[in-house]
Amino acid sequence: MMEVMSSAAAIQIDGLTVRYGSFTAVTKLDLEIRRGETFGLLGPNGAGKSSTIKILIGQRRPSDGDVRVFGHDVVRDWAAIKPKFGYVPDRENHFDEFTGKRNLLIFAGLYDVPLERVDECLQIVELEEAADQRVRGYSLGMRRKLLMARALLHRPELLYLDEPTANLDVHSTAVIHRILRELVHNGTTIVLTTHDMMEVQEMCDRVAILCKGKLVALDTPLALRQQHDERKVDVVLMDGTKMVIDLDRPDERAKLASHVSKDAVASVQTREFDFHAAFLKITGMEFD
User: What does the CA dihedral 18, 24, 25, 26 come to, rounded to 10 degrees?
Assistant: First the structure.
């Protein structure tokens, strides 16, 4: 018997399997993404992230399982889902010979949105001054922001982003993050894929880690950090001796306490979260 979709869920995935011939890219994936949250899909190349996104944006049909967006089945009710989401791909597909504004006007016609929304979206992504420039002259950051503007034209309730800030400068990254925070504040649900763990910690309410087509971890970034981070500190003594203290071992903690009580410690440095190490610990695979 099919489960009833939670009223708090924007996306409900039950037993999703995606096959390409004899190769299975996603295996019986169960996932619920809540309304109004920023959700990260993480994993190495070939983990199943892109295949999952392709199902959600209608580029492929599930080989098996049930996928619903706002209660609508992605196969039977696609016409009801399509107007509700926007998509920012990792690869650009602009009309380079047209201006930024002309690019948006084309899609505004497809979405049947008011023309003034084009100017509004250009302003949101800080491209209003470049609106009448041909896209072929845009920088990488400008081109990425134009993709974002296009996805926002019809005020989607759900936004998919594939590596939204990859290779962007600091300012452009900050602009994208600001836009995403404002969207979530206004109730938009965001699903993003990224290789940037700092972005995950800053932006995501929860993350799912996929490996070889299977879900291997699902939690908040903080919880994953607490569960899988190394609890070690680098200690330098007054005489120059360097040591690594494992805080999970009572004898190591006692050793550190002894040095501290003798005023023999010159410095103590906690280790920053290393997502590559954490991912290796979770999956046994490197994070590409």
Answer: 60
